[in-house]
Design brief:
With about 190 residues, the protein is mainly alpha-helical. About 80% of the residues lie in helices and about 0% in strands.
Length: about 190
């Protein structure tokens, strides 16, 4: 081998080592510590907001289910062994209407909240893995998820009060926010 061949061989080995070193720097799997270190303050706030808002939504779901149990009790529709309830014959038309409303609120929550919570956590994962370049997405995430939570509370309130148009409007805003959460997370994942 000549000295020029040895130089070419050593340059190739050097380039290969640099290439392998750069491959080793990028982790295949993100650990909690690598994600936390890479997160900006805004993304951290978005994760915290997502956690708090999810807990608030769970409280709302729990409260509406308790309300449904009370409405069933007043309408006399709980199981026979629940002797503390009204008899179905004693239930007024208002009790039956309240039961129907309470059941519809719970059903609507089940149709909207779980899916949006999954979207919110998936979106914040996408935003968090991108890092500081997704700060605007983190802020948008906080806004969309907050509005969604407010809309879910407002939806239940206007449903109880029988305000059809207001119910439809807050439901629509909530659904738009669900789409916003999903689209925002998808956009962030391409940054």
């Amino acid at each position: 081998m000549t000295s020029s061949n040895i130089n070419l061989l050593s340059e190739s080995k050097s380039e290969q080592q640099n290439h392998n070193a750069s491959k080793q720097q990028a982790p295949l799997f993100l650990t909690r510590s690598s994600v936390v270190i890479a997160m900006s303050s805004m993304i951290t706030q978005a994760v915290q907001a997502t956690a708090v808002l999810s807990a608030v939504l769970w409280f709302k779901v729990f409260a509406t289910n308790i309300g449904l149990g009370g409405a069933k009790n007043n309408a006399g529709t709980r199981p026979a062994e629940d002797t503390y309830q009204k008899d179905a014959a004693e239930a007024t038309a208002e009790d039956k209407t309240n039961l129907d409303r309470a059941q519809r609120i719970v059903n609507n929550d089940l149709e909207n909240i779980p899916y949006t919570m999954v979207l919110a956590w998936g979106s914040i994962y996408c935003i968090g893995t991108v890092g500081a370049s997704a700060d605007s997405n983190a802020l948008a995430h906080i806004v969309f998820y907050t509005i969604f939570v407010v809309c879910r509370f407002a939806h239940s309130i206007v449903y109880i009060k029988g305000l059809s148009t207001a119910r439809s409007i807050v439901w629509l805003f909530g659904v738009i926010c669900s789409f916003g959460i999903a689209i925002n997370g998808a956009i962030a994942s391409f940054k």
